[in-house]
């Protein structure tokens, strides 16, 4: 596949104009040149925050990190990063592979270290234009690729199908989709600049393109379900604003398909 170069800089997870999600916490301001951990910064004072409502949730880690096996498959929790081995700080906490975010702790993420997601881009060419299936997210009303979190022990290939089924097919089984899932091309695997990221917890995703070369999708009824309020085909060149880093994933799609 054509895995793009990993993100080397982050912006969304350094924003100080808005409070951190579901909180009144404001991040410590990190200038661009102070992002890399390799740059010494003795006066760096990140704000410590772990959303109390995540504590004890089945999808969240405990805050006792002593037994966690970072950079490894820890039981059925994948604590390996797509970006290679990440550093562990003096307190035994994983360090964000891109660098400082102005906020330490787990934030609202469930896992210390990488939090793995998967994004399926189902695409086709219709009337001479490249299109992909997009959903409108219930949580923030933004249009997005119908992705989601990889469950513990779940294969990424299964997450891709499951999330698409739940959000874009209304949870209904579709025999036609088996032809689509047969040919996936990995467009990206790695760190994502996501507003939830902290110094010690961050999002990573695997983006896989399933391009419909045979008009199979003409017989598939799209139906919004689960976390999606609606679903539709969106032209890849339409410049519509998209959730998180999804616009850059669609750019990768455009660059990889000749119309
Ligand atoms: C979303 C993915 C997204 C990832 C990183 C996940 O919660 O479901 O679509 O790529 O976060 O922003």
UniProtKB/TrEMBL annotation:
Gene Ontology molecular functions: ADP-ribose diphosphatase activity
Alphabetical list of PROSITE patterns matching this protein: NUDIX
Residues in Nudix hydrolase domain copies: 114-256
Pfam families to which the protein is assigned, alphabetical: NUDIX (PF00293), NUDT9_N (PF25969)
Membrane-spanning parts: none
Signal sequence residues: none
Protein name: Nudix hydrolase domain-containing protein
């Amino acid at each position: 596949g054509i895995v793009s170069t990993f993100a080397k800089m982050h912006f969304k997870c350094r924003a100080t104009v808005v409070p951190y999600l579901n909180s009144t916490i404001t991040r410590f301001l990190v200038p661009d040149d102070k992002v890399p951990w390799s740059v010494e910064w003795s006066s760096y004072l990140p704000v410590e925050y772990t959303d109390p409502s995540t504590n004890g949730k089945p999808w969240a880690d405990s805050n006792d990190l002593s037994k966690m096996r970072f950079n490894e498959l820890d039981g059925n929790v994948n604590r390996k990063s797509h970006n290679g081995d990440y550093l562990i700080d003096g307190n035994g906490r994983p360090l964000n592979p891109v660098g400082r975010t102005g906020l330490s702790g787990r934030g609202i993420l469930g896992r210390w270290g990488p939090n793995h997601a998967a994004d399926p881009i189902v695409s086709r060419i219709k009337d001479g234009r490249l299109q992909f299936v997009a959903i409108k997210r219930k949580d923030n009303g933004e249009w997005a690729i119908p992705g989601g979190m990889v469950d513990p022990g779940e294969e990424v290939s299964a997450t891709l199908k499951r999330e698409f089924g739940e959000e874009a097919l209304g949870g209904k089984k579709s025999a036609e989709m088996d032809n689509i899932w047969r040919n996936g091309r990995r467009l990206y695997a790695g760190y994502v600049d996501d507003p939830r990221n902290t110094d010690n917890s961050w999002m990573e995703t695997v983006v896989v393109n399933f391009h419909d070369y045979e008009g199979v999708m003409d017989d598939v009824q799209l139906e919004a379900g689960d976390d999606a309020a609606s679903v539709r085909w969106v032209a890849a060149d339409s410049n519509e604003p998209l959730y998180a880093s999804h616009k850059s994933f669609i750019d990768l799609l455009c660059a990889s398909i000749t119309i």
